[in-house]
Amino acid sequence: MGHFQALNQYYVLLFLCLVLDSLVLFSRGGTTSSYVRRLEATLDMPLDSDVFRVPPGCNAPQQVHITQGDLEGKAVIVSWVTQKARGSNTVLYWKEHSCKMLKARGKSKTYKFYNYTSGHIHHCPISNLEYDTKYYYMVGVGQTKRKFWFFTPPKAGPDVPYTFGLIGDLGQSFDSNITLTHYENNPLKGQTILFVGDFSYADTYPNHDNNRWDTWGRFIERSTAYQPWIWTVGNHELDFAPQIGETKPFKPFKNRYRTPHRSSGSTEPFWYSIKRGPAYIIVLASYSAYGKYTPQYTWLAQEFPKVNRTETPWLMVLMHSPWYNSYDYHYMEGETMRVMYEPWFVKYKVDVVFAGHVHGYERSERISNIAYNVVNGICTPVKDQFAPIYITIGDGGNHEGLSTKMTEPQPEYSAFREASFGHAIFSIRNRTHAYYGWHRNQDGCAVNGDTMWFFNRFWHPIDDSPDDDD
Ligand SMILES: [Fe+2]
Predict the structure, then answer these.
(1) I need a surface site. Which of 197, 241, 378, 470 has the fewest CB within 10 A?
(2) The Purple acid phosphatase C-terminal domain covers which part of the protein (predicted)?
């Protein structure tokens, strides 16, 4: 009898524990990671850091970076800076195993920002490249030559695998360097970076010290010279400083970085589209006008119907300011753009939206909030299998530090969030499946802090929530 009583008490206790546990698990929207990151000052690397080193040699090209140069993926734009003299605008390039050297000629210019004058910034488009091919290229012809290489993407197609890396809000702190190193060592080997905005944080220095744009360019060259970074502009690219007479927004960005906006019919470099392998990538501008009748609105309205999911099954959107964000920082800053564009995102079955701005990590459920029409009182996001997953990946490591405060309780729409630095990988395997992982800087390179198998919204629109699978 005593034995049965003890057993009964055990089962009652077990039951209570399970109830309590489930209350803890399900009373909130999703998971707020229990991972506690050591919190210490995130400092910019000093000017004499080795990652900022000027390459040796007479007027050697520095800050070399490449990006996609057209809509289809058959062109790149090579950019670099020569500090002392203009030097050659030419890029020499050749296919691997080929003796035939080709030549492309670019243009260069300088710009001034308050009391700063830039070096000679060169941009050289190279077109008519072959798909899925390794090319070598050389800049600094006639003075100090520097050689790099890149791979062109495979031709767009429904079952072409391709792996993207994701970094946002990088800056140039010691943590930024860890993020980039971590990405480089990730065994999943990202082939192109989708960068979601906030580059150098030069604007946080007195008079927007543009020398910090140069140091940033030298810091990231070890990646940007070898694989394209797809640029999204953030608020730190605005560089709007009327107090020192700098009234043209985005001046350093526009001079230093190029996007292939014209090939997708865009009128500004801040919003544009590219196809890359199996992905159609739409880049939006959080800090350019997006209301009805604006150039960005008009362009986007025409852009979505163009996407052919048989050619490019994965539809991805990049922007800087997130629409769904449950941190206390930048809360609802993306709300007006969400109100304008979210119905299109659901209608056209966007798979995933990547944003930055908030210095932490967050992944949403598949949710939408498009029922709201001012008078119906419906204003809560609901689960929606045709809606994208929203991912905030503004955790690149810049010197402003982490956003640690979150709204409590965790909203229903938020599936996972953690205030740590890191990067992510979006690895498309075929038209139906993509493997996604977020990697925090403190872990080993192969460790996932958060992971999910994405099911394509056009080809395989069934529930892909990791929680439901569990
Ligand atoms: Fe930002």
Answers:
(1) 470
(2) 387-444
